[in-house]
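Continuing the series of single-chain predictions for the mutant panel. This is the parent chain; the variants come on the following pages.
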Amino acid sequence: MHISLDCQPIHHLVTLATDLTRPQYVAAQKQALHAYRLVKLSQYLGRNIQPSELLKTSYGKPYLPDLAFNHSHSQQHYALVMSHSQPDIGVDIEDLDRKVRFVALAEHAFTHNELQAWYASGQDTGYWFQIWTAKEAIVKAAGLGIRLSLNTLETNVKFGHMQGQMQHSSLGAFEYEHVVLDAALVTIAWRKSQIRPQITWA
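Parent structure:
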């Protein structure tokens, strides 16, 4: 069981003109990141993947018949996970220096238990990002996108722990792992199985 993680600073992957409007920049960055994703998928499979080969689930999550993958980006970083053996995988990445309305978003998106645990941590911002990225990665692994209210998803993220698991009545059981980079937090989630997958760098 294996999951491969690729994570890069966005400025290593995307070079765009400085005179673009905000919508133009967003569109150009998306195109550049999708092109990079295609290169990495091709390298992983050892053959050239064409955009037309990418399929989508009924909820719109892209995949290949012989490879599951998911990607995420923040303002400064990009993350891609790939796996032959784990069909339900998800990833979320956040810059740890991102300006966030921590209390307002926690009260909106965290469950009661998560909110109380975060307050008990002294409102630790790193812990906040762990809870937030776990929610995002789990929902993406399940393939639901934004169709599930985050405040109904109990992640069971424990303060000071880098791994965890959760059970949801609709989604099933998932595991997750946090990876800290120099200035970002990556959380990878996958559907729980009898064997815990090995996570390696692509």
